[in-house]
Design brief:
Elements: H1 18-26, E1 28-29, E2 39-40, H2 49-55, E3 67-68, E4 77-80, E5 85-91, E6 100-104, E7 107-114, E8 117-122, E9 128-134, H3 148-151
Antiparallel strand pairs: 1-2, 3-4, 4-5, 5-9, 6-7, 7-8, 8-9
Keywords: Signal
InterPro entries: DUF3515
Signal peptide: 1-32
Amino acid sequence: MHGRRPLRRTPGAGRPALVAVLCAGVALLAGACGDGAVRAVPFDAADSPACLAVADHWPTTVGPHEPRVTAVQSRGVAAWGDPPIVARCGKQPPGPTTEQCLDVNGVDWVLTELDDGAMFTTYGRDPAIEVLVPDTHESAPLLLPVFGAAAEQVPQTMGRCTAVGD
């Protein structure tokens, strides 16, 4: 965490379930298509030039997880494994936050703990990248290094990850 202090949170506060995030129309629903494709709603900026550059650097595998076909016509969305780990480019970048900040090989990520998984969002980059990891995948932060090359396609121009009050 390179000098960043872990942030205190009230247990359960602000932790929407991954399924709720996914089913709310802003994320994914695995296996809903007859062909087993992962459905995910792309962010509005998913096909921007920045996100197309990101998509050219999506990892080929995430840990032992192979790529999955997505049911969307956007290169800014990718998935791996079952249940799927989903990455989406084009998210509005987060501002100062009380969520935990992680520096993974020079890329800042904001960790939002969900009831049944974790959401990681790049910090200081516009557009941001979101990576959703279901809790069945242990050690979720250890999966982030493979997203570094993709995240680095968007320059970090909005500062480093800090918490409100720092």
